């Protein structure tokens, strides 16, 4: 193979791989809770929001996003265990960009900071953890205390 052909093939492979990675990340968009209520100082979300049905098969989402018009940013709610959840405010502590859920972690698209499903920094440039909220549950609902 000629040097020029090798370089062209290598460059096209790199560009194609990058485009495929971006396309796959776009497919994993976050699920936004359909019904989010405010009762006193608690955001209330049904646990059933975590249930996903595809092709007549039921599975559980590991994260949903709750939007409430009076909050500046949405809140990611991670299902950690059968009855354990974490609620994380999606404002990056680095420069205030919105953080996005990617599977079981969060990414700031602005500068690449990454956070785990409890809001702790796993990769900078952010140095502080994300704001979290106390979470309580009952049989049917998740209560996120905003106070």
UniProtKB/TrEMBL annotation:
Keyword Iron: yes
Positions of the Rieske domain: 71-144
InterPro entries xref list: Rieske_2Fe-2S, Rieske_2Fe-2S_sf
Entry keyword annotation includes Transferase: no
Keywords (A to Z) from UniProt: 2Fe-2S, Iron, Iron-sulfur, Metal-binding
Signal sequence, renumbered to the chain: none
Pfam family, one: Rieske
Gene Ontology molecular functions: 2 iron, 2 sulfur cluster binding; metal ion binding
Superkingdom of origin: Bacteria
SUPFAM superfamilies in the cross-refs: ISP domain
Protein known as: Rieske domain-containing protein
Top-level taxonomy: Bacteria, Pseudomonadati, Bacteroidota, Cytophagia, Cytophagales
């Amino acid at each position: 193979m000629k040097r020029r052909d090798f370089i062209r093939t290598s460059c096209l492979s790199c560009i194609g791989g990058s485009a495929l990675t971006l396309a796959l990340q776009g497919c994993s968009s976050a699920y936004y809770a359909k019904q989010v209520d405010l009762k006193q100082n608690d955001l209330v979300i049904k646990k059933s929001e975590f249930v996903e049905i595809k092709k007549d098969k039921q599975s559980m989402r590991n994260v949903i996003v709750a939007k409430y018009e009076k909050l500046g940013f949405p809140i990611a709610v991670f299902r950690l265990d059968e009855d354990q959840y974490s609620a994380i405010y999606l404002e990056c502590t680095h420069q205030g960009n919105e953080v996005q859920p990617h599977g079981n972690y969060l990414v700031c698209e602005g500068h690449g900071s990454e956070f785990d499903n409890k809001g702790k920094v796993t990769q900078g440039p952010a140095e502080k953890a994300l704001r979290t909220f106390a979470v309580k549950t009952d049989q049917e609902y998740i209560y996120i205390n905003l106070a």
